[in-house]
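Hey all, quick one. A colleague (J.T.) asked me to put the calcium ion job into the tracker so the inputs and the structure tokens live in one place instead of scattered across chat threads. No bug as far as I know, just bookkeeping. Sequence used:
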Amino acid sequence: AKDEGRGIFKYFSDDLTIAARRRLNLEALLRRALANQELKLYYQPQVDIASGRIIGAEALLRWQHEVEGFIPPDQFIPVAEETGLIAEIGEWVLREACRQGHAWIAAGLPVLKLAVNLSSHQFRHGDICATLKTVLQDTGFPAQRLELELTESALMEREAEAVLILQKMRDLGVGLAIDDFGTGYSSLAYLKRFPLDVLKIDKAFITDIPQNEDDKEIAAAIIAMAHILRLKVLAEGVETEEQIAFLQRTGCDLYQGYYMSPALPATDFAALVQRTA
Ligand code: C2E
Ligand code: CA
Ligand code: CA
Ligand code: CA
């Protein structure tokens, strides 16, 4: 039994070493990426379900490394979170989105809103409101057109202050969305305490619509309850006509998904908006 235990330990420690090495490697790469401007923002349209019109976009990070190729955000954001590098990356994302948004306004592009993801680290550390204020001032992007996406876990981690921080953001004029709803604590009663504008239903509940009856009922219930709380509802990961039809029937306000478009480079997004305006 003793040998067996050591064997297991050895197995796990090898495994951890590989993971740790990969992590260190990724961290070093990521630091260079930030310095070398290998990070890009792509824009995925947000669509009004009733009119079919694009009303804005979510900015999504892309990392194109010249040797390693494309590295998906699900791989590098967790590393950036753990190392604290997300503070710099997150501020860059905010600034870049606002810079681009301002350029689009100046060019007369009819885009109303840009949504930016805020990591829980950004929410926990530093003064996010001060950063926001500076970035909005520097770029000239109107606060009313900016929406910040927060996860339930970010709000839970700073529960006591969360309401106050959100209120301060609201006072600046920015909109607030709860992201990936349904994957975390998912208590609507709890959400009631936060000054939010939009609830984003996680794509896990949308993917199997219309085949999955449970998912349909869950999505319909979330939409109905969110409306009681006077939140707009956005469905993520919408890929089919049937899903649109279902969401229209259930009164969902907005959607994002491959049905309209994946996230696109800025110039391609602007072209799509112009084509569909
Ligand atoms: P998220 O915020 O939930 O973003 C939505 C993800 O779903 C994106 O993946 C998007 O490309 C993908 N998606 C959109 N439509 C569809 C669809 O119809 N079908 C399917 N199967 N997928 C769809 P992406 O871009 O790989 O981003 C993954 C996650 O990385 C994001 O999830 C977000 O949590 C994080 N992330 C991305 N950019 C940033 C950022 O700038 N800051 C922070 N903190 N996190 C970011
Ligand atoms: Ca998001
Ligand atoms: Ca999401
Ligand atoms: Ca997600």
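Adding what we noticed when we looked at it: The pocket of calcium ion (ligand 3) is lined by residues 179-180, 200, 236 (CB under 6 Å). The CA atoms of residues 151 and 179 lie 5 Å apart.
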